[in-house]
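Q: Can I see a sequence and its folded structure?
A: Here is a first one.
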Amino acid sequence: MIALLWSFAALAIGPMIAVRLLHGRSIRSLFGRGGTVLRDFVKAAATLIVIYVLGITVTSLLPGEEGTLPGLDLRRWLTFLPLALIGIGIQTLAEELVFRGYLLQQLAARFRSPLIYLLLPSILFALLHYEPGLMGPNAIYVVAATGLFGLVAADLTARTGSIGAAWGLHFANNAAALLFVSSGGALQGLALRISTVAPETEGFVAMIVIDAVMLAIVWGLCRLVLRR
């Protein structure tokens, strides 16, 4: 699992080569405005973490059968945690360089309409998360939720001029899903807890809706926080 995350470094090489050889730009230009990437990363990641913790706390108090089961034991989890966090950082950065870095920038340079340069990378990003074998009939809802995330990330990138905020959201979201409470499947190997709601069941749709609502709240707050 950790090796899979680290292997995304190869994905990051593609846009780096493209901007140098095809467009004569510096690799740094993929990241956007200098000096804001790490600052926006921290602000966006912190915003998502706060809202998600509040959301999980509230939903845990509601009646229902949803819960979690033990995953990786705490000692092993802590042992793998540093490498896993670096791996998630690599994986999310690679995807941001492709979708909110290279693709968004190239489309924005050619088309004035945000419907093109915000939507197209988000649609492609969403379609790559279509997994009917794992998600069953819920696969289309996962694609829709992923597309929403892509739009939020693209909007924040366009507004801030760097991929920092999008990367921060992506990193915090994936860290929560892979390391803390996993929905099961092939990516549950590093999680501390495993959700009892299987990805292909009706109950999973409710979780997707809740996540979408929290993401909308995070987006609104990020737009306020990132102005400062």
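Q: Show me another, different protein.
A: A second, unrelated one:
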Amino acid sequence: MHLDSLKVKNFRILEGVEIDRLGHVNLIVGKNNSGKSTILEALIRKQQ
């Protein structure tokens, strides 16, 4: 799957996240309970 950008609204802990300019390799980094796994779960649900 190739994405250019990602928008997530009102999904679990994420109220409104917009990520632009996604490349071929992306890292999701952050503190515990900041929504890293939630972003991945949103991508998986969108793909299904």
